[in-house]
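Q: Convert this sequence to structure tokens.
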Amino acid sequence: MSAAALPAPLPLQAEELEVLDVRDRLTCSQWAQERRVLSRKTTDLDGRWSHDYTPFLIQIMDWLSAPGCRQVTLMKCSQAGGTECALNFLGWAIDEAPAPFLMVMPREDDVVRRVNTRVRPMFEATPSLLGHLADGRLDGLNIGKETVLDNCILYLAWSTSPAALADNPCCDIVLDEVGKFAATTGRESDPITLAKDRQRTFYSRSHLFVNSSPVDAGDLLDREFRRGDRHEFWQKCPHCQRSLIVRWRHVVLDHAEDGKSLLTADEYEAGGRARIVCEHCGAEWSEQDRWASVVAGRWLPEAQTIDADGRVAGTAPITAHHSARITAWMLHPHFMTVDRLAAKWADAQLHARSGDLEPLKDFIRTECAECWEDAQVVSDADSLAGHCGDYPMGVIPHGAAMLVSAVDVQLDHFWLLCMAIGYLYECWVVYYQRIQTGDTGDLRNWDVLRKALAMRFPLAASADAPRITWASQLTAIDTGYRGDTAKQFVLQCRDLPLMAVAGEGRTKSLSVRRQEGPKHRGLERFDINVSAYKDRLARMLAQDRPGPGYLHLPAEAREGPHAYIRDQLTAEKCLIRPGPRGATVHEWVPRRHGLPNHLWDCSVYAQWACDHLGGMAIADPAAPPPPPRRAEVMERFRRD
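A:
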């Protein structure tokens, strides 16, 4: 048959042409720009996704869709767009590279909340994703079991379920808020290792996204970040055109008139009291300058830098694992300003000086995007010489508002320490003594202690002021040794403000009140979290400037027969070791065997006595007096 006699070929159908058509696959950032729609239910910036507010996320997203990348670890500040980046990765994978996809969050409740508040609104607002659901029904997104889409399978799991992490193979995985993950899941490996095991059959095309705000040094997120190439964001100064990695040290804050004290948080938040200063030209950045530096910035791994001419120096490592850090000063001014950061910093410093480190930890983790290294460093005895003041032992210095005492019971003697407390836990050791007696198991030998507890100490008075003396307002007596005798003593001394205490390492609160049994009926004992109070004392001794949160020693502690207090206050050190489920455990141990630590223990109990009396509420002596209450005003009116 001749070619002319052959029947004409049938025209290709539209579906066949679509299969044969070769199109370029979108990157993750391109997919977000072209197809992602933000729901009004989740943001006030609803509508089509725009990189204008988060230009630093473009590179992160493109790593997630790059063929040569296997893992991306993002250590970020809070509200930096990490979760939205993960959702964009999910949407891109479903549309452009369909394969089994797993998203893991810390707890089951987190999964339920994330699906209801983020995932379902994203599917609802993005037409290309809604079409993958059976009949377009949002309730088809399942929690705890697979969701079968028209082109792939989606798993939504939580970190504490080995079955959820070890069942079926997956190609792409998101571990969101991994800083809150437990380090181990039952008897199995940690969640990150379990997740990687699920990618073995897809290794040539798999991607793992680890995303979270940091928590503690050495935890899961910190470990994964350090395994990557550790990218930092280089911001370009709009004044000198040189690039730098902005740290919190580049933020300059206005101070009070003394040139040392920070302003209040409200003063910083009002604006104009904080700014970023370029380390190259010294220019002070406005918020517009800061954002311009971010728009012009770029990511570089730790091995590379940018020189004065703007050229990249160093060799980028060849790796399939990219890691990066996003800080709060990279965020758009719509979300965060330097003034608001300064206000949060001032508030954190105020709490830290009073012994509460939680706001400072929160700032380091959620704004600086750095891990908190909780290492206690107790000064040696020689360095504590700087804490010795010019007030004599036995005299209560100016600024004190409360006097407390503590007693440590030994075989044949007592240790007594009296401590004065001022505003925001500024403390002065007023008196300390080793009181020799007979066998402390004999209650008759406690009379000498009773006399010592009745002592009164003079206030440091000016020349024209009358001499005033104070007695201790509360004395904490350790009942860990000679407990029965110590409790009987407390019951007998009803005329003295005494409290029975005992050190406790298992309580999570600062102290727990307990009722004694029939043998000591009517007696209350407080079990004290000594580790927490020792942490506080260590910070007070590490302070190098007198003021809130500082422990003063009398002049006699500098040298001579009373200098032994410095040895006892530094007799212990804190060991920080990994604990169960990824936590860290603080354990205070002697620096060396046999080193006396009795005044250290007394200081711990004195700090508890201060808290028990409400020492945190001591008013600032420099602050103006509060306005009179209505009852006081009416009483004055009646008198007049």
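The CA atoms of residues 4 and 10 lie 16 Å apart.
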